[in-house]
Amino acid sequence: MKDQFVIACIDRPEDAATVLHWARHFAERLNHKGLMVLHVARQKGDDRWLEALGVPFASLVGDWRTALDGLPTAFNGILAVTAFNPSAPRSSLAHPRTLLREFRGCKIAYLCIPSQNSEFIILNSKFEIQNSALSLTHQREGKEKLVWASYLARFLGSRITIAHPAYRDAGLRQKCSNNLRFVDKIFRPLELDYSTVQLERTTKVDLELLDLNPSLLIASTTDSREQDLLDHFLPRPELRLLHQKSCPPVLFLNPRDDLYILCD
To answer: Does the pLDDT at position 228 exceed 60?
Structure first.
């Protein structure tokens, strides 16, 4: 009996194949975790397409946000997988703005897979996440990103690139240096390789990571506790990221005090 699950969050039948393929791959590689499908509808409807997936599923009536808040406790989830598509209807979970709004309270990591051409992705993807990239800034949430980076290196054989800004402020530079030292504490005992690069910009650094052509990005969403008035009127960096044509799969972590992470 599995005690931890990778949960495929599927809103539309057209996204099912892509999401389920990636969720199944991660479940197998993350030390053989369980796999299940979660679907949430505004009203009770046809669930036969869920049965046809051949995977245990939960079909709920209500709203996605409430269901996603319960992933670690109600479903023993350690990773959620979902699709994103800027061309999806605004009412769909796959629409980037809707996705980020509904997952805002999610306490576990959630992997967002581009589904603009789901048939091509499934037929051509060998699920080889050759290189993963993340930005490491002064924020303490960087440690959670490093833990997940170590999972990708250990279980999926991914090369890790850690990009850090060139801070001019001494205090921010010291906090970033502390996070960089934390890398060694995680990676060296496990004999995991990684490389570092320095970025010129100090804000919206995740967008600059696209220049590295990563197979997967690890990113933190905006911390509302650190936003000023102007930030509320500008598109959040994670929203801009999901709207980029070159955006690869993104593993998001929400800044929280009670994040649930894999412990293997």
So the answer is: no
